Structure formats: structure tokens, C-alpha cells
Amino acid sequence: MSDVKSVSITMVKTSELLHYPKNANIHSEDQINRLIKLIEYQGFRNPLVVQKGTNLVVAGNGRLMAAKKMGMEKVPVTYQEFDSEAQLYAYMTSDNAIASWAELDMSAINSEVLDFKDFDLELLGLKDFSLEVPTVLEPLTDEDEVPENVETRCKLGDIWKLGEHRLMCGDSTLIDSINTLTEHQGVDVCFTSPPYNLGDNAKLRGHNASGKDSAYNEKSDHKSQEDYLTFLKDFTSAVIMKAQVSFINIQLLAGNKLIMSEYWNFFKNNLIDLMIWDKEHGAPAMAANVLNSCFELIFIFSNEEFPTRTIKTGKEFRGNIPNIYRLNPRRGGKDEFQKTHGAVFPVAFAEYFLDQFCGKTVIDPFGGSGTTMIAAEKLGKKAFLMELDPKYCDVILSRWENYTGKKAELVNGPT
Questions:
Q1: Mutual orientation of helices 371-379 and 347-357 as an angle, nearest 10°?
Q2: 67 shares a domain with 179
Q3: 322 and 214 in a common domain
Q4: Could you tell me the residue range of the domain that residue 54 belongs to?
Q5: DSSP code string of 271-324
Q6: What is the pLDDT of residues 300-347, one digit of tens each?
């Protein structure tokens, strides 16, 4: 095991420090001027590494040149001892060279900097960097339009690239599948509406060769209470490991209401808050003496245990966001019970949460008809969608292609 060198920082006069004569790093005048600008903005955050006993600067010769040019009398220094000249030279050279091994994700930097108001790009220290402002999408279809008759393309295990987004035909209860979808990266938020255990209350029309209508064609949405609770636990555990904050939208129905308190209790240590979706006018209950359902629950979970009520992702807010969100899902005269998917929510619903609470990336482990992806497309965010049913994956592909005019690409699939 390598020794950990103890570090103490001392303020030392610049006139007492010496440039190491064998330093192979050549500092141009432009670089020194950029260093000066960075020091003026950030302060002198990174101390110089100096050989004890000689005052030779081993790491930070450029910063010392900038400090002298700025007229700084003292700079922070950490004194280090080296076992040999070879060890010193290796440290000095590797300190300069090792950073060149890394490859900067310029698109990610561009995406982050877009949010910085009146920001001087030179403070990034990047040479010849210019900001690329994304073009505004001109949609070719209505955002809530879901195609019915679509080309059969997807099979289980497929991964598709839709612009910046990714779609996988797979099981969202499996963390390995979630990792494959996101390329093992973390995401800002999860926004999803899992199956409600509807049974035969929702219809998938025009896609079922057997003639049996169900909201989730290939998998039963009519589980026992125990199986449904296990299902909720499995997918929620997977996404909590992946997303900083998860928004889980569930409606209380006969098939899930008994176990909802158990679900909430199981993840009580991760609970940030609970929101209500006030739908204003619920669909009329068909059974006698059953109340119309005019609201749905939105559980907000953190990837950390025992969180406060602070939502750490997205835009900063204070005192102006209530825990009740009001939106009529039939806005504009559209029916919330779409022909293709019986449990679809409008794009405006997903868009509100992504705009307010999502930074750059969102995962929806139940892609359905692709509503979350359309909302992400509108907002310039990257969506990762998982959908178990290949028929719904076909719908998502066609919906996105119709909306954007672009073509999805198959990344890989089973051989």
C-alpha cells in the first residue's frame, strides 16, 4: 500500500520560490494570461508543490509565473520531500502529462454551460471553445398524438438511439438492464408511471393478435397483491440506485390500493415528499357507489436515506411550488384514455416535472407510448426509456420519428 503524504499549506513569498530548471512544460504568454484570469475569478485554490529544502517548484510553475505577473507577494505552498531526483522528475512530468490522457466530453460541457447566465467562457480554461446553442425543434405532429398502426421493429433486448435519447426493450425490475440502458451512468431524475395493476380496465387496441385486450400486452397487469408489491419494490429499488430523485406516479385503484401503504412504508427512509396530481375532472366510475377518481399520487424518493424535503435536482425555488399539481388530462378535448395505451398521461404532465425538477437526464422505466421522451425532446433533455413490450417500443419509435422527422437507429439487439 502506498504511503499517504501529509500536506500542510504555507503562504510563501513569490520572490523566494524558484522555477525548476528541468521542467519540460512550456508556458505560453496566452496561457499565463488565461491563468491570471482564472486566479482573479477563483482565487488561488491550488497550492504549489515545492521541494522541501530547495524551494524549487515541482508543480505549479505556470501559476507562479501568473502570480508574479499579477504582483502577488505570497502564494500558498505545500512542501514535499522526494526520495530521489528520479522520483521528483517523474512527479513533475506526470503532473503535467497525465491530464492529457483524459478526453473532455465537450457536448456535456456545452450542455451545462448553457444554464449559466452571462458566463465568461474563458473561465473554463478551454482553448477555442465556443458555445453551441441547440436549435429549436419544430414538431411535425401534435405532441400528444400517439400512432396506432406502426411498423413492427422491436424485440426483447433491443437498444435504440433516438437522437440524444435511448430506448431499451427490457425489464425495468432488473438493475443490470437499467445499467445497460443508461450505459452505467447516473441520471438526474426518474419520472414514471408504473402499471397500476389495472386488470382489464385499460385497453391496447390493434396490436393484440390473441384478441385479449390489456394495458400491458405481453405481461399481465392483473397481479396478486403480493406479486404487485414485489414488482413495485423491484423496479423502485433499481431506479433509486440510478436516479438522484424519483417521481413515481400511481393512481389508487381496486387492484393496488391495499398494498400502497406497504409500498410507501418500504421506502420510507428514502421519501422526500408526496405530491398530488389533481386532474380536476376524473373519469366517471362505471361501478355503482364508486367515487370518481380525480387525483393521483406522486411519490418523491431520494437516492439517499433520511432526506429532508429538499428536492436537490432542477431549478431552485422557494415558496412558489405547491405539492398539488393541477392539470386536466383531457385538456383541449383530448381523451385521457387513449386508443393505444389506456394509462397514458399528457406531455404537459411530464413536461412540468422535467422542466422544474430535472437537470439534464431522466429515466422512465415504463416507457409506455413515449410521453416522457417527447417531453424531454421539447426541453432539450436526454431521456432513457425502458419498455418491456416490443409493441409499445414500436409505438415509441414511430411517435418520436413522426414528431421530430428524424430516424431512430438500432444500437444493438439479440443475435
A1: 50
A2: no
A3: yes
A4: 10-101
A5: EEEEEEEEEEEEEPPSSTT---EEEEEEEEEESSSS--S---SSS--SS---SE
A6: 999 999 999 999 999 999 999 999 999 998 754 454 435 544 456 899
Total structural domains within the chain: 2
93 and 168 together in one domain: no
Q: How many CB atoms lie within 10 A of CB 81?
A: 10
Report, in angstroms and rounded to the nearest whole number, the Rg of the chain calculated over CA atoms.
Answer: 28
The CATH number of residue 324's host domain is: 3.40.50.150
- Mean pLDDT of the region 21-45: 93
Bridge-based pairing of strands 159-162 and 409-412 is: antiparallel
Distance, in Å, from the CA atom of 354 to the CA atom of 279, rounded to the nearest integer, reads 18
**Residue 103: CB partners within 8 Å, gap ≥ 6?**
none
Q: Are strands 271-283 and 187-192 parallel, antiparallel or unpaired?
A: unpaired
CA angle in degrees (0–180, nearest 5) for 367-373-378: 160
Q: Which three cell numbers stand for residue 341?
A: 395505451
Element counts in the chain: helices (H) and strands (E): 10, 15
- How far from chain centre, in Å, is Cα 395? 23
Same domain, 361 and 259: yes
CA separation for the pair 74, 94 (Å, rounded): 26
At 134 the pLDDT is 65
Indicate if 92 and 191 belong to the same structural domain. Answer: no
Return the CATH number at 74. 3.90.1530.10
Residue type, 328: N
Give the separation between CA 59 and CA 51, rounded to whole angstroms: 9
Residues constituting the chain? 415
Least confident of 4-18, 168-182, 324-338: 324-338
8 Å CB contact between 357 and 376: no
Residue 199 cell numbers, joined: 386488470
State how far the Cα of 277 lies from the Cα of 298, in Å rounded to an integer.
7
CB environment 364-394: b (16+ within 10 A), e (fewer): bbbbbbbbbbbbbbbbebbbbbbbbbbbbbb
Residue 221: which pLDDT band, with cuts at 50, 70 and 90?
low
Here the cell at position 82 is: 522526494
Burial class (CB in 10 A: 0-12, 13-18, 19+), 124: middle
The answer to the question of residue 152 being in a domain is no
**410: CB partners within 8 A, 6+ apart:** 153, 158, 159, 160, 161
Q: Which amino acid, 343?
A: A
Q: Report which of 257, 412, 405, 279 is spatially closest to residue 335, judged by C-alpha positions.
A: 279
